[in-house]
Every structure is written in structure tokens, then in C-alpha cells.
TrEMBL record:
Its EC number is 2.3.1.137. This is Peroxisomal carnitine O-octanoyltransferase. It comes from Castor canadensis. Beta-oxidation of fatty acids. The highest activity concerns the C6 to C10 chain length substrate. Keywords: Acetylation, Acyltransferase, Fatty acid metabolism, Lipid metabolism, Peroxisome, Transferase, Transport. It catalyses: 4,8-dimethylnonanoyl-CoA + (R)-carnitine = O-4,8-dimethylnonanoyl-(R)-carnitine + CoA; octanoyl-CoA + (R)-carnitine = O-octanoyl-(R)-carnitine + CoA. Its main location: other.
Length: 492
């Protein structure tokens, strides 16, 4: 009996400790709670390159679990610094944080640039793994420095550029965030927070530890706090006596310097090949589509299908992310937006003999099919993750790979990571994202939805003469208008 009492007492104590330290509210869809495990991976998480296989290491702990790293890494002009953001158990204040960052900024802008070790993280994975092993062999302290960066809460990057951005055009800033200066990116880090000289902020994240919506939640939280405080610190300007940032000066040799130059060259070559187009469509948004009883996410997905069909004269196999966080440690499933119903509607839209009513009915059938697929995939009734599991089991067990996976039609339909359209909704808030195409002749397409607008970001490879992100986005905007016209009852 006494043992049971002690167990209960300790359990309640543990629950109370968790209440103290684990304060992020549980996400919900309606009244249904979602798995929150991905939020554990946001801070103090890093990918470690391997010769044959990478790994992910997570140093984060809640207050009830033990000590958690409390430092950040700062990258500026090829140099690396670290400093604690907790002092005597409390977060340092904005004036104290400003002092630390100003110290780094002034030091880097008055002294020679560093060797640019972070650029190695943007190299091809096996090359980076080999360079990392060589870097560690030069001096054991190099490993200590790498572990400090890996375990940091996040990496903060100073970018010297000033990308143009307006509420209608996000192209330059999203391109700078996605493929900016490699010497101020730690490509393996779960969270790179980036600031530009004109005061614009953004982030660059590794997708492996968590999905986009985890970062969207944090971005929205920060955005709300800035609006709430009007961007002004209202506390004391007096700072505590906090140690200055520590610079991590790596021991490098000629080979490492050559590796860095090679990494920068290949990164910049590939970055220069990327076309990024990100515009706001402001004629209408969620409010009007909902009024017309059209799901806004499906509205954009079908507009993309129509735009692709008009531009390329054929359907485009499409990946859309479905969230599976209803399940324990759930991540995603694939919604294949290029349905038979969607193709039939696209064909009717291009057919001069098709009636207005026929086009409208075809569109509504495509909407119904897409809505059902999204619901089924989110409920664990999709098939792409199941097929991936079967393929991996066959490979791990040394079994013959099922014929399905070697059938050319499997790849043409998008299987094996070959989707021509790689897409995702990034929420209904003010946060926008961007992604590179999955294949050379494809497009990356992220979008967010607001009451009065849709903001889309589209990418394509310039070296592919068949694709054009600018044309596709303009055709998507035309599709928005055409689809809304189909819901105009005056034509019936």
C-alpha cells in the first residue's frame, strides 16, 4: 500500500513538473488532438552526415527530463560563434541579445572573413561526410566545435543581402532564404533563423526532423508577438554582465579549404539554376470560396491541375501533403491530386464544344473526389506510405523487389519520388514557404490561404526548357477566375 502511495505521489509530482515545463498547447482539428512529437525536434536537432547513411541527433529535453542545451550558434561572413541565451535560469532580454549579436556583427564586419566551414554542409552528402571525418582528424577540438553547433537551440545567420519584398511579391526573399549564401547556412540544422541587412527575417529548415506546419506554428507565434508588442521592447534597457560570445575557430588545412571552395562552387551553380516565383493573388481568397461551398485547398489544387494542363497539354502527376498527426507520431501521406475526375474536368475546360453546365459538373465531381481523398489519407487510408514500407522491408530483408516498383508506370505516376508537381498547403496564417522541384522537369509549389488572398510560391529548374514557373503561376491565377466563373449561377 505504501509503495502504491509513493508511486502515485511521484507520478503526480512528475505530472506537475511536466505542466511547468511543457507549455505548448496541443494542436487540434476541431476537438481532435494531434500528435505533438515533431515539436520536440524543432530545437537542438541536427542531421549528421554518414558515408552511406545520415542520422539525426536530438539534444532537446523538457524541464522534467533534464538538462537541455541553452546556447545558439551564430554564422556571419564565414565565421561561427556561440553564446547562451539563458542566464541564471532566465532568458536573456532583447537588449542583452542585441548586445551579443552586435558584438558578432561588428567583429565580422571589421575583420577578415572566416574560412566558411558551414558551406561544407551544403555539399553532396557523402562528400560532406568525408570532409567532416577529415576535419575531425585535424584536431579533436574540431569535433567539440561541431557538437556545439549540432546541439545549439538554433543557428542564427547574418545575410548581407537586402532582398526586395512586398505584400504582393515574395520572389526575391524566398529565393534568398532557400538558396542564399552557403557560408552562413548550416544545412544539416533543423532550424536556421536568417536576417537580412534590410531587417527582413526568414528561416531555412531541414525537413527530415519535422514537417512544414511545425515551423509555420513557430513563425506565426513570432509574428503575433511582434504585432502584439509593436516590435518594441518595453522592459529595462539595462543589461546583466553576460560573457561575450565565443568564436569557434576550426583548425583547417589546404584540403578542407579546397573542399569548402568546391562546396561553394557546386552549391552556387545549382542555386543559380533555380527559378523562384512567389506572388499574392488578391482578387479573392478563402472567404469567397467558402461562400461558394468550395474547399479552398482543393480550389488551389484543381487550379494547379488546370494550369499545368493548359501549359503542357497533358496531366501532371501531383503530390500533395496530407497530415496524419491524428496517429501516434504521425507525419504525412500522399494525396495524388491528378485524379481521373480532375483530368476529365481539365479536358472539358479546353473543349470549345463543352457546355457551361458540363464544365461545372465536372469541376464539382473533381472537388468531391479530392475532398474524399484528403479525408481518407489523413485518416490512414492512403497507400503511398504503405507501399514505401513494403519496398523498404523487401530491401532490408534481401527479398526480391515487387514488380510494381520497377514498372515504368509506377515512376510516371509519381512513385519513387518522381512527382512532376510537388505541393503543399502551408496553412491559413501569414507564413509562406517554398520548396525545390522533386524532379528536373517538375515544379515545387507551396501556398497559403487567407480570407482575402492566396499566396503561392512556385519553383522550376531554369536548365529544363519545358518548365516555366512564371507562366504556370499566371495560368493558375487565370484558373482561379475561370473556376469562380463556373460558380456564377447567372450562367445557369
Amino acid at each position: 500500500m505504501e509503495l502504491e502511495k509513493n508511486y502515485i505521489r511521484n507520478y503526480l509530482k512528475g505530472q506537475k513538473e511536466k505542466e511547468i515545463g511543457e507549455k505548448v498547447p496541443v494542436d487540434k482539428v476541431g476537438n481532435i488532438p494531434l500528435d505533438m512529437n515533431q515539436f520536440r525536434m524543432l530545437f537542438s536537432t541536427c542531421k549528421i552526415p554518414g558515408i552511406t547513411r545520415d542520422s539525426i541527433i536530438n539534444y532537446f529535453k523538457t524541464e522534467s527530463e533534464g538538462h537541455c542545451p541553452n546556447h545558439i550558434a551564430v554564422l556571419c561572413r564565414g565565421r561561427v560563434f556561440v553564446f547562451d541565451v539563458m542566464h541564471e535560469g532566465c532568458l536573456i532580454t532583447p537588449p542583452e541579445l542585441l548586445r551579443q549579436l552586435t558584438y558578432i556583427y561588428k567583429k565580422c564586419h571589421s575583420e577578415p572573413d572566416g574560412p566558411g566551414v558551414p558551406a561544407l554542409t551544403c555539399e553532396e552528402r557523402t562528400q560532406w561526410a568525408k570532409a567532416r571525418e577529415h576535419l575531425i582528424s585535424l584536431n579533436p577540438q574540431n569535433l567539440t566545435f561541431l557538437e556545439k553547433i549540432q546541439s545549439s537551440l538554433l543557428v542564427y545567420s547574418f545575410e548581407d543581402g537586402s532582398p526586395h519584398v512586398t505584400p504582393q511579391n515574395y520572389s526575391q526573399v524566398l529565393e534568398a532564404l532557400l538558396v542564399g549564401d552557403p557560408v552562413v547556412r548550416w544545412g544539416d540544422k533543423s532550424y536556421n533563423l536568417i536576417s537580412f541587412s534590410n531587417g527582413v527575417f526568414g528561416s531555412n529548415c531541414d525537413h527530415a526532423p519535422f514537417d512544414a506546419m511545425t515551423m509555420v506554428s513557430i513563425g506565426y507565434y513570432v509574428d503575433e508577438k511582434i504585432l502584439e508588442t509593436e516590435g518594441r521592447w518595453k522592459g529595462s534597457e539595462k543589461g546583466q554582465d553576460i560573457p561575450l560570445p565565443e568564436e569557434l575557430v576550426f583548425t583547417v588545412d589546404k584540403k578542407i579549404l579546397n573542399d569548402i571552395n568546391q562546396a561553394k562552387a557546386q552549391y552556387l551553380k545549382q542555386a543559380s539554376d533555380l527559378q523562384v516565383v512567389a506572388y499574392a493573388f488578391t482578387s479573392f481568397g478563402k472567404k469567397l470560396t467558402k461562400k461558394k461551398m468550395l474547399h479552398p485547398d482543393t480550389f488551389i489544387q484543381l487550379a494547379l491541375q488546370l494550369a499545368y494542363y493548359r501549359l503542357h497539354g497533358s496531366p501532371g502527376c501531383c503530390y500533395e501533403t496530407a497530415m496524419t498527426r491524428y496517429f501516434y507520431h504521425g507525419r504525412t501521406e500522399t494525396v495524388r491530386s491528378c485524379t481521373v475526375e480532375a483530368i476529365k474536368w481539365c479536358q472539358s475546360m479546353q473543349d470549345p464544344s463543352a457546355s457551361f453546365l458540363e464544365k461545372q459538373q465536372n469541376m464539382l465531381q473533381a472537388f468531391a473526389k479530392h475532398n474524399k481523398m484528403m479525408k481518407d489519407c489523413s485518416a490512414g487510408k492512403g497507400f503511398d506510405r504503405h507501399l514505401l514500407g513494403l519496398l523498404l522491408i523487401a530491401k532490408e530483408e534481401g527479398l526480391p523487389v515487387p514488380e510494381l516498383f520497377t514498372d515504368p508506370l509506377f515512376s510516371r505516376s509519381g512513385g519513387g519520388g518522381n512527382f512532376v508537381l510537388s505541393t503543399s498547403l502551408v496553412g491559413y496564417l501569414r507564413v509562406q514557404g517554398v520548396v525545390v522541384p522533386m524532379v528536373h522537369n517538375g515544379y515545387g509549389f507551396f501556398y497559403h490561404i487567407r480570407d482575402d488572398r492566396f499566396v503561392v510560391a512556385c519553383t522550376a529548374w531554369k536548365s529544363c526548357l519545358d518548365t516555366d514557373a512564371e507562366k504556370l503561376v499566371q495560368l493558375i491565377f487565370c484558373s482561379f477566375h475561370d473556376m469562380m466563373q463556373l460558380m456564377n449561377t447567372a450562367h445557369l
